Amino acid sequence: MTKVLVATEKPFAATALTQIRQIIEDAGFRFAVLEKYTHTDQLLEAVKDVDALIIRSDLANKAVIEAAPKLKIIVRAGAGYDNIDLETATAHQVVAMNTPGQNSNAVAELVFGMMIFQARKQFTGKTGAELRGKKIGIHAYGNVGKYVAAIAKGFGMDVYAFDPFVKKEEILADGIKVCESVEELYQTCQYVSLHIPANAKTKKSINYSLLSTMPKGATLINTARKEVIDENDLLKIFADRSDFTYLSDIEPDCKEELAAKYGDRIFFTLKKMGAQTDEANMNAGVAAAQQIVGFIKDGNTRYKVN
Ligand code: 3PG
After folding, report:
1. What is the pLDDT of residue 101?
2. CATH 3.40.50.720 fits 3-102+277-298, yes or no
């Protein structure tokens, strides 16, 4: 019998897990779950007889894939699949998928939660500022970027976007201004919200030469991946500019140094929580379960990323 394992160090909401189980069992498959594991060995042990795997930010590296000889499909319930070793998956004929768009609104709402928190001086009662009328740059106009842009319009912000992979007309049709280059986006916008994936091209791409050109009150919001930031350059910017602020859902490796020196200009969530809502868990979890059923039963490879 086909066995599907949900392996999530950071668990899905209980309602989402119930729904995932239902879909898997209705398809006639066996359902298993490994949550809150503390050591990779537990994951290696749990995958050894599974045909399909649902993960979140959990590492599906070479060791994990090779520990699962029956594995046919891994679905990352979420957007970014930089946690899956695609080369090894392909070499072992394992299909890898993500569930694009399913948790985007949750991530976009968190962007504004962090922006308001910082604009209002971390709720200390000190005089803050409003978002209305401020320029925000959406760095990559994908699923999350689109939600951020729509919410920003509601706040009365002046919204810009840069995305070389999206047609200019598509962005303009949403009432968003288009920047012709990444440099223009950073030079124009006081707020920049990052929505680029982490890959060989983007890693450490957010660097001093971009950040140093941001207007006064520069605020970088990262709900994407920490790897896209050049952290040496980040430290340099903080040292150079007393008006620079960094808000992130993924704490940087240099967190302690930043906290010691610039505590009132940073905010990092305790654990990545952009997608951690009932709704996002339900959407992404259900999509992952349905994609597995569709693949095993009908060979449907929509959302395959390898
Ligand atoms: C994603 O890529 O979808 C987000 O980073 C969410 O990650 P999570 O499922 O670990 O919360």
Report:
1. 98
2. yes
